[in-house]
Amino acid sequence: MPLSKDQQAEIDAQRATSQSTLRATAPGMEKHLYTAHPVLDHGFVRVIDYMGDDNAITQAARVSYGKGTKSVQNDEGLIRYLMRHWHSTPFEMCEIKLHVKLPVFVARQWIRHRTANVNEYSARYSILDREFYIPAPDALNAQSVINNQGRGEALSGEEAQRVLKYLTDDAMRCYDHYEEMISDEGQQGLARELARMNLPANIYTQWYWKVDLHNLLHFLRLRADAHAQYEIRVYADAICKITADWVPYAYKAFEDYRMGGANLSATALDCVRRMLKGEAVTQETSGMSKGEWREFEGVIG
């Protein structure tokens, strides 16, 4: 279960209690507060708190007050201008705090984004739960033959079943030994901070992750991309849906200019101009490496 009974009871109590506030609220985000959105087999993402909305971005850009000095249409246009020209500071006026439950190996990827405030569940102080990420059969893939850090075709038949059995058996055996080592029944019991070293990287951990909108969108641009590892991408996808409800204008501009757009080098842009003039440009005449040309072809279709 992604949530324990105690966690669900705490969430229910929080959602049943409302308080009046004078600060700006985002109606789309209010529905997400405290709600746990399931991810993978035991994970979740839930919003603990947030600050700001689309209006906070335009207020900061204009250094205005109240509802701002322009119309709603101008607000959306300003946000698109800011996104288009990479003016990041106004987006830093919005913040979000998330509670995330995720496998340790996903957390190690995630923590590379060093632009957030993080507090993780302590396995020195507490005992980790017997919960491990075991991929669905269709998420078991061979190594990609063209990408050293990616996946290729899905495993099938006996090989897939054997891998799933190894992952499950090894995780359970490691946790059995973890419990035995920390037990103080008939022995001193090993310190938790030492016993945790025996646990596999697919065990679940939890943390609070607080980040401003500018750095959140940078995280989503990388981790919600089709080339990102599946196990972190599904978390990014869940956060994308939350962000779209929180700051709809900003997220729409983000989808248009970051997720759906493309950056071209001077060399690539020159190739586009040559193509528009009718020239048959090839990789050999483009001035690009084979890898760059392959990516360029992917952009222009």
Automatic annotation (TrEMBL):
Task: Return the protein name.
Answer: Flavin-dependent thymidylate synthase
Q: Which PANTHER family match?
A: FLAVIN-DEPENDENT THYMIDYLATE SYNTHASE
- Names of the cofactor(s): FAD
- Specify the superkingdom: Bacteria
Assigned keywords, A-Z:
FAD, Flavoprotein, Methyltransferase, NADP, Nucleotide biosynthesis, Transferase
Q: Which organism is it from?
A: Roseovarius marisflavi
List the catalysed reactions. dUMP + (6R)-5,10-methylene-5,6,7,8-tetrahydrofolate + NADPH + H(+) = dTMP + (6S)-5,6,7,8-tetrahydrofolate + NADP(+)
Tell me which HAMAP family the record gives: ThyX (MF_01408)
Gene Ontology MF annotations: flavin adenine dinucleotide binding; NADPH binding; thymidylate synthase (FAD) activity; thymidylate synthase activity
